[in-house]
Amino acid sequence: MQQLPAALPGWFELSAALTSAVGAVSSAGGCCPENQVAIGSICCPRGLLCGLPGQQSCCQAPSICVGGTQCANLGTAGSLFTPDQIATQQQLQAATPECQGDTILIKGRCCAPGSVCNGGCCSSTETCFRGLTCCNLVQQCGTSCCPAGQVCLGGSSCCPTNQVCSNNVCCPTGTQCVNGQCCPNTNVCGSSSALVCCSSQEQCDPIGGQCCQIGGVLPGGGCCTPANVCGPNCCQQGQQCLNANTCCNTKDICGGNTCCQAGQQCLDNSVCCNAGQVLCSGSCCSGQCVAGVCCDPSLVCGSTCCAAGQQCMNGNMCCSAGQVCGSTCCPSGNVCINNQCAPAGSTPCGGSICAPGQFCAGSQCCPSGTTICGGSCCNTGNCINSVCASSGSFSCGGTICSSGSQCCGSVCCSGGQSCGPNNQCCTPGQWGCGGGGWGQGSGWNTGWGSGGVGGFPGVWGGGVRPGWGRHLLAGDEQQQQQQQQQQQQRDDGEQQEREVMVVHTAADEGVQHGFLGRQLLLESQENERHAHPAAATAAAAGVVQEGEADS
């Protein structure tokens, strides 16, 4: 028997346990080789020893011990551990008091001698495959032990489970078995429970799980002839694709790119409208098209369409409710007064309308800033005795005198005149007006020099006359001055007409006094002619000249 090394730990403790295994004697009386164990009358190689102690048997090649209890023929299993390797392993990993029988401690487990494999302990469903690794029986494949997830095909090759196809064909990497055929992964289509393999001329519809012609997969799922694909739709026979997204029956196409729906009609070959509608400015109109505007029938007003809230007037004019004024529509910004349109700010005034900036005085419109005088407007603001007088006018008794005149009792004397006796207007220097001569201060010559007979100046009793006696006393120079004053009086004729009522009163008296003065003058001239013939002739000529000047 071979001598074990003295340095082997636990040798003396294991010697009794190894007596039956090392240098055993067979029942035939012979000694078994050092690498064999006596089993009955035969010597069994240690790698073929199989079974529990006392029930061990020797497996015959090519069978091996599976699970330490059963001999099994697994085909060509390859080289096993040599008996020396097993014995050495048992010695090095000797059983401890925790392990029973002939089991030994392998990495914390009590392992039967037949389960020890390359430093590990195989499970009951594994064997030590080729002395290298523990391998399940179903994974042992020729010279290989198939890894988890693979199966042995033909007893010689390992194949992933999802690549195993019919007739024990293992599909190559990048493919999988679909319906008994190896299919490229890029062509596999459908769910795991219903896979299909698309051909090179097809593409997968991932939603429907089906193979379609290339270019015939619809976005929402489904297959379509590539030429009939129209966006998300598949056009049928008799339809045409419009705008790359709508399938339209050929008879419903309107204007080349519009598809009318059921119940619609194509108007002007451009717009689809519902039945009863009309085309108005390129759009469908359910009312009446008026001047290019779709108008509700209730708002049609002649050739115009009124807006909401407007009223049709006279059948041809739209008017907002706030602008209706009788039978007229007021312009924007106007107001309605007495059924008449007026600018904003106007006010009613009796039967009239005052414009903005005016105010009503009774029934008359007056400009702003004016005053009311006697019920009427007074622009000058000079109201005298309820009469609107010109600026600068003033009251003179019951009369109104203009600016520049002089009040004489109740008579207005014009410029250059003064108030004579008995409140009569006279020109200074005239007879009876402080100028000397006949009748001075007596008043009889005043009537002759003012007023007029029948209202005609320059006739007896009208105008201021110089008198023959004044001519004799004053001389030629005074006569010329008197004529100039008379011319000034004619220029003031307009002022005398305004005072005609007052003047007429004085004229009535003047006629009487003037007639008397005329008689006295004639008598005086007659006496003078007899006494001084030359002077009388000159005086007569002066009277004639004065008369001609008055005429």
From TrEMBL:
Keywords, comma-separated and alphabetical: Signal
Compositional bias (Low complexity): 475-488
Signal sequence range: 1-27
Chain spans, region Disordered: 475-497, 523-551
Protein name as annotated: Granulins domain-containing protein
Species of the source: Tetradesmus obliquus
Taxonomy of the source species: Eukaryota, Viridiplantae, Chlorophyta, core chlorophytes, Chlorophyceae
